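Course assignment 3, question 2. Fill in each field.
Student: A.L.
Task: Predict the tertiary structure for the chain below.
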Amino acid sequence: MMQSIPPNGHLTVGAIAARLDRLPQTFTVWKLIILLSLGFFFELYDLLFTGNIAPGLVKSGILTPTTPGLFGSTGIASFVAALFAGLFIGKNPMHMSRHVRALETISFHAGRYWPLEAAMWDIFGKVTGQPVAALFGGALESLPAYASCGEIKPAAERAESAVELRELGFRALKIRFVRDGLADGLAAVEAVRKAVGSSMEIMVDLNQAWRMPGDIDPALDPGSVRRTVEALRELGVLWVEEPLPGADVAGFAKLRTETGVRIAAGEMTRTLPELLDYLDNDALDVYQPDVVLAVGMSRARLVAELALSKNRWFTPHTWTNGLGVLANLQVAAGVGGGPFLEFPFDPPGWTVERRDFFLAEPLRIGRDGCLSVPARPGLGAVLDDEKISHYSVA
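Answer field:
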């Protein structure tokens, strides 16, 4: 999919943009572009731009509804796209420290552009002939995977599913709770523990640290959280994920100290200082920043190294698709994270074929229950043109 790397390694972001601009203007391409930039275009470079700058440009005639831009965009959208693209076009993609700092400024003003850093690390690996994990330290060649379940299923059904996951080689699974179904969640964990005994680790995700757009319901009250975590302790869970709002650093620290249960969080934490605040206050046992959704690969590596130096765990959130899983795997394996890596998988609703439909081969765990770092340089992903074309609309 990507053009070959010049022998001197001087492939520029401009060359990548030129390649992207030659892609056919299909519905599939537009979907991919939109998914990568949703956060930015929702905010439209803050209300300052939409309320003041853009109207002035239109009124003066500088910007018109037909002004062409990147990927066939026009009008205000073309200006918005060009606003940040200009920070990278013509730059050497291997100058990673510079790009990370630029992406942090974008993250402050707009959306999460960290997939761009992942793409540049892919280039870096291909230029040097190394998997990104090797560039990040090369501590591990594989990590045990845990099946990260997404659906809310009745207790008996979840227990049956856990047994099937064990037969596929998984040694751990994560079960999600919903705010108004704590009793049902506990029943599911109890049923799974009874079905698999000590042969599988169980993690639980309360999903209280951040919200989907429009979710304004109150978070779980501290008393309910405490009782739930204590009940899960009796069921031998490996960790409880995001039991409190993300800003409650003191609450996380108190909960892990007083219950003795490992507490995990940080998957969508937006800035490095916020993650460092968790570390400074010893608030978490498990650090989970997603390298394509939170703070990027380089900053996640820093957090991982600091967490590991304090004898805490680093195992990032990976709930996106095969590309996101690979990017997080490369960082976690590079620094020696674990003890498990999240593997989004909850059949029949969420299979590897659905998750990784655009890859030549979906990512799968081995017979040993581990996900291996691909031997290919870069991120190790191979996109499938034929499969992508199959779903495109001319």
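Instructor remarks: The chain is about 45% helix and 10% strand. Residues 16-23, 32-51, 69-74 have pLDDT under 50 and may be disordered.
Grade: pending
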